[in-house]
Design brief:
Layout (H helix, E strand, L loop, with lengths): L7 E4 L5 H12 L3 E6 L2 H13 L6 E5 L13
Parallel strand pairs: 1-2, 2-3
Bound molecules: NADP nicotinamide-adenine-dinucleotide phosphate (NAP).
NADP nicotinamide-adenine-dinucleotide phosphate binds next to helix 1.
Length: about 80
């Protein structure tokens, strides 16, 4: 039942900088974190760094470019 109430967070641009630090802090507090990045290689490298810190139980990687699908809408 505890799993049903576990908190989750999705962090964009998380392979470095503020996003990476947010992932680290949330996961260290027991929150389930989806670390996302637009570049799969950089994202998986960031995931590896957090796993080295012992946070692997609380972090998964998902590829996400927030600009995908943001092209200008068609004009009618
Ligand atoms: N650092 C500060 O003190 C500070 C203060 C106030 C506000 N901010 C703002 O907070 C934001 C993050 O700052 P930061 O210092 O952490 O910057 P950063 O180190 O440059 O990191 C930016 C992150 O966003 C990712 N990103 C850029 N475009 C993306 C897209 N289309 N889809 C997915 N991810 C994308 C980058 O991925 P790639 O590695 O693939 O480029 C990188 O992971 C910025 O908007 C910045 O202006 C920063």
């Amino acid at each position: 039942m505890a799993e049903a109430t576990k908190r989750h967070a999705v962090v964009t641009g998380a392979n470095k900088g503020i996003g990476f630090e947010i992932c680290k802090q949330l996961a260290s507090k027991g929150i389930m974190v989806v670390l996302t990045a637009r570049d799969e290689k950089r994202g998986l490298e960031a995931l590896g760094k957090l796993k080295e810190l012992g946070l692997s139980d609380n972090i998964v990687f998902h590829h996400l470019d927030i600009a995908d699908g943001l092209a200008a809408p068609p004009t009618y």
